Amino acid sequence: MTASNKFIVQMIVSQCRSKGIRHVVFSPGSRNAPFAISFDPVGEFKTHVIHDERVAAFFAIGIAQMLNQPVALCCTSGSAVVNYYPAITEAFYRKVPLLVISADRPKELINKGHGQSIMQDAIFGNHVKESYSFEDLPKKKLIEKQFDKQCENGISSLFTEPKGPVHFNVHLNEPLYETTEDVSYERFKSIEKCEENLIIQDRIFAQFQNKRILILCGQNSNQSNLNQILSEFNKNTNVVVLNENTSQLNDSTFINCIDRTLNSISPEKEKEFAPDILITIGDAIVSKRIKAFFIKHQPELHIAVNHSDIGINIFNCLNEHYKADPTVFFKRINQNLIDRNTINFEAIWRSTDLIAKDRLPGFFALDKSKTDIHIFHHLNENLKPNDVLHMANSSVVRYMQLFDPIKSIEYHANRGTSGIDGSMSTAVGSAVASPEKNHLFVSGDISFIYDSNALWISPFPKNLKIIVIDNRGGGIFRIIDGPKSSPQLETFFEAEHETSPFQIAKAYGLCVRQISDKESHEEGINKFLNQNEDQILIIRTEQKENPLALQRFFKYLNDV
Q: Which strands make up the sheet holding 130-135, listed edge to edge?
């Protein structure tokens, strides 16, 4: 098999192959040519070429989140590697395993005035699990320096919890394009998943008896069988489960629309809804209201259960952190908990949630405005079973939380850092990784324009549709307190603009349509989702009417 004649490159490619990495995302360059020469001929690898490094890194996140597998990234030296940084931080906080391979100039040339040479070693700092610096040396010297063991350990760590990105910075000497024949790589091996050993102190079970218990499910909470095990625990009348659609959990007995329910709780009754024990699982929480609620009404005991090295002490009251799979945690609790409860904590939450949910049809029958809240209502009503829904930040993911998640739908969003960069690139990567599924990406105009180089990816996946809500600015800033009343709103926060998402999409050669003024949003969305020609739909909404419609929505649900 043909490969680069550089042993350090052969070693990294061999370890990637033996450990089970199958997808490699390249951005074109010269310094990383030895890796392209070596990865491309190997049959087990699927290689992708993405010109824009920022897009490429988010694209890799999309592949990894769909396949639940590590993905390798490879770029040339200089500013190229820095363009990976936004996605690296997202991957770090979402615990997405990425192997970042950055090619570099030889160490002796750094900071000597050579082009495309910056200080790349450990450039991602604390935002990667591990960082390694490798040199282009003969085989004997590489082994003497134990680079072979460092390479193996680094790639192996991609498969251990907490998962996350690992950085290999590889200093390569010229010439870069020389090859060798008959390179033999190890045969492909899969990684064995180790059974988790979770130690829960016995005293924890005694504290659960006759206490009001609330489980708050953050992003990527779902693990194997967790939905069933958590549903079983939720049968206890003193237990309430608050769930967000990004958790990938779904049960009719869960409170799935947190903000919608909290909106219906009067301030004087809030204490009745506050738990004695709070258990948080998974990662990021979208709802600002629930964060404010628990900061105001702190529980007696807060337990965090996730694979993070930190407990995510978001409410400033964390007592215990179990670094573990929530499935193991709740399975142990179900086995040990004796039901002696006299509290029906679930009833007050459930009745409040159902009242708010029952009022939804009435609002949309009365309010006929062409606003964002109506788009998300129509969208939620017309999602197809087994679709994969990708939500951009920031207003999109919040609007979708107002409607009950559909059990067969996968919900994804970049909530690790909650930035607007890379949402569309991630969706494209997911669609490429799972061509058998239909994917839908919903975005505001700012996120769409900011990440428009994602449309440059070729071939663009036919199984991905995109809806752009064009309200000519960052609509979130008209919703949240503070910026909406600032005189700097339109210029500095909302960033009002006249750029056309329609023209940008057309420039990339994609089939795009806009909903006309005479066409209803519902009609336009239905037509778009049920035909195959158009891939992008642009919907204009009333910039200043959007926040007013949202206010009317919450007021109507609360007027019981």
A: 46-49, 23-26, 71-75, 98-104, 166-171, 130-135
pLDDT at 393 over 70: yes
How far apart CA 15 and CA 453 sit, in angstroms, is: 32
Quote the pLDDT of residue 111.
87
Structure tokens at 321: 């952190």
CA angle 83, 469, 486 (to 5 degrees): 80
CB 163 within 8 Å of CB 98: no
- The token pair at 549 is 């419609």
* pLDDT recorded at residue 560: 61
pLDDT tens-digit profile of 115-160?
A: 888 999 999 999 999 999 999 999 999 999 999 999 999 999 999 9
Contact 330, 233 (CB under 8 A): yes
How much is the CA Rg of the chain, to the nearest whole Å?
A: 25
The per-residue pLDDT for 225 is: 86
Q: Tell me, what DSSP letter sits at residue 490?
A: I
For the beta carbon of residue 159, count every other beta carbon within 10 angstroms.
18
Phi and psi dihedrals of 285, rounded to 5? -105, 130
What separation in angstroms does the CA of 116 have from each of 4, 173, 340, 391, 549? 22, 14, 68, 35, 51
User: Between β-strands 179-180 and 3-4, what pairing exists: parallel, antiparallel or unpaired?
Assistant: antiparallel
Look at residue 200 and tell me whether its pLDDT is greater than 80: no
The backbone torsions φ and ψ at residue 410, rounded to the nearest 5 degrees and listed phi first, read -90, 135
| Contacts with 28 (C-beta within 8 Å, 6 or more apart), sequence order | 49, 51, 76
CA atoms within 13 A on the CB side of 36: 17
Q: Do strands 71-75 and 23-26 pair parallel, antiparallel, or not at all (unpaired)?
A: parallel
pLDDT above 70: residue 475: no
Measured between alpha carbons, how far is 446 from 452 in angstroms, rounded to an integer?
10
Helix, strand, coil abundance in the chain, percent, nearest 5: 40, 15, 45
Coil/strand/helix, residue 183? coil
User: What whole-number distance in Å separates Cα of residue 213 and Cα of residue 239?
Assistant: 5
pLDDT of residue 189: 44
Reply yes or no on whether the pLDDT at 195 is more than 60. no
Angle at 69 between CA 285 and CA 256, to 5 degrees: 25
Task: Report how far Cα 65 is from the mean position of its chain's Cα atoms.
Answer: 8
226-233 vs 326-336: helix crossing angle, rounded to 10: 40
Q: Which domains does the chain have, with CATH numbers?
A: 3-174 (3.40.50.970), 203-355 (3.40.50.1220), 359-558 (3.40.50.970)
DSSP type of residue 109:
G
Q: What does pTM read for this prediction?
A: 0.92
